[in-house]
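cron nightly-structures :: item 1 of 1
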Amino acid sequence: QAGAHIDGFAGAALGDCNLVEKTLRERPGFARERDHGGLTALQCAAGSRMPKARTVDVARLLLDAGAEVNAKTRSWADDVDAPYFAAGAKNRAMFELLLARGADPTEALSHAVWGKHFDLAELALARGGAPDRATANRKPLLNDLIRWGQIPQMTWLLQRGANPNIPDGEGWTAVHQAASRGNARMLRAVLDAGGDVARRDHRRSTALDVARLMKREKLFGMLTKV
């Protein structure tokens, strides 16, 4: 209204199908272009929170024109994709479309679980998302959730069969991670899911060694009785 120029990227976020179609006619490669911040038009549409915007229709136009559904954009220390933006916007229709058009279901699962969007996470699971291959912050997803004390997400993942014995780059399993946090509820959930207290990290430390080093006295008994 104040006279800002609305280009194809802004049009994608606004759900302006006419503008996006016009841009694609003028620049057939637009679907794979990036704006000044590195975003693709598909990512702009996926992350839009404009009420009643036709962003899903825009996404279809862009995908039909060759948009890369798994294209990554650097955001702080992470590389993010269109499903990441769709999950953040809680846009189920968009998230479902992206999965149907080839989005990596395991990466999509990580985005949905971290955001506690469990309905979206179920969609990713149904498309083949694998909890044991899902990662976050360069760690197994389960380990990272425990690291940050995300109990609801951790519980959801364990209930769907996530393996608590997958090591991270340092050899820590979810048991090591839970022992370091000092939260008895998290540790109990991991142990009940089959966590192996005898597993050693790359420094040959067990979860009990970690608990002792971190002075998590209330967890000693839990670990020694397993």
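cron nightly-structures :: done
The chain has a mean pLDDT of 96.
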